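Hello again, I could really use a second opinion on something today. I owe you a coffee for this, so here goes:
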Amino acid sequence: MELSTSANTGNTSPFAALIAMFYEPGKAFAALRQRRAAWLPLLLLMLCSAGLLLWYFKIVDVDWLLDQMFAGIKDAAQREKSRAVMSRQVLMVSGMAQALVGLPVMFALVGVYFMFIGKIYAKEFTFGAGFALAAWASVPALLTLPLGAIQILLSSGGQLGIYELNPLSLNTLLFHRPMGDPMASLLESVNVISIWSAVLMVIGFQSWARVARAVALKVVLIPYVIIYGAWLAFALSKAA
């Protein structure tokens, strides 16, 4: 993966930068330094996520899915109560909210983090720069559309877990924990695409903040260590 940040920034459109993000991320971020165009990856990610989730919830066997979702609840009455409030429509609405509201909110939170932490190393690093960095670093997630589509087309009778839409997760590749397992969501969140995005975030922060790579690594990885450390502790406590 190209880590260089040197590039001719004058003639690169956001669409060209989008393609370059997959094979020359250093040059892509350098080209976007003055014209960040966060709307492009944000819009594409929202549309792809919404489309994939809408398709998934239309074809999935809802009864089977709910059995998988609530299998970890040992109390039968509580399990049935949880199932009663769920339906295909509720799942579809929650999926749309995740794609159309959750993504911008997540990028905004990342933008706030970079705005504050970035000022320690780069006085001009703004909320907008942090938001754009989060959006552009998430470009590999666009690959979940073809990957998820393949999984849906190969599924049998709609019995496909939502985690299986991304076949590149640690859980799918190695651990195979069921959906209701306390460790499942953590292991699903660690995947090839999320690691790729973290690498892009390091490259992007290094380029836009003009800091050393060691500084960029520290700034980007601190939230991952805190969040995943707390998540692991919580999952282990639930599994105990």
